[in-house]
Amino acid sequence: MRRAFVLATLGLLLCALPASAASNKNTKPIGKHHTPIFLMPGGWPRTISIPEIKVNAKIEHLALTTQKGILEAPFEWGDVAWYSLSARPGNVGHAIMFGHLDSTCCPAVFWNLKKLKVGQRIWIHYKSKTLHFRIMWVKEYPNTHLPTKFMYGRTTQRGLILYTCAGVFHYDGSGYDHKTFVYARLVLPNGRLG
Q: What residue ranges in the chain does DSSP mark as E strands?
């Protein structure tokens, strides 16, 4: 009985001690000051990898033209265009990237973009660092109702938007009548989403 009382008292004392006194050397204090800090890599994004759809492509840096809402397409069928007036991938904001669905002869870089699933990863490679993003959603929109407010609006998230053509191809010069969009968020060093 007396031994049980002593053990219970010691247990209460240990619980009342500060975390630093009761923890061993391998325990890391929890708090905002001990959360891993995310540091953006320098330079510009170089390549993009999406293993699930076998994409490993060079990233072209193109201007996002506000005149008539025109977005330039990548010069190469196998490249992906990052619009340099959108956020740099990993920064706060939406980084916007476009890839061709097909070419004059065959499938292009984003032919299988619509097959991506929520939770899968996208890798953006800088010279000194690779960032990975987790897919949040995949949706198709008609060209007449694209999510432009979402694309260009303010956000506190570190988002990545990939898109390509979809739907039916029209030979009147208007091309495909839909777009497939994939939205992903940066995975921070602590595993949380940016």
A: 47-50, 55-62, 80-83, 93-99, 121-125, 130-142, 158-170, 175-186
Q: What's the pTM value of the predicted model, to 2 decimals?
A: 0.79
Spatial CA neighbour of 160 closest among 135, 141, 180, 127: 135
pLDDT tens digit sequence for 155-183: 999 999 999 999 999 999 889 999 999 99
On whether the CB atoms of residues 155 and 91 are closer than 8 A, the answer is no
Give the Cα separation of 110 and 108 in Å (integer): 6
Domains in the chain, CATH or no CATH each? 33-186 (2.40.260.10)
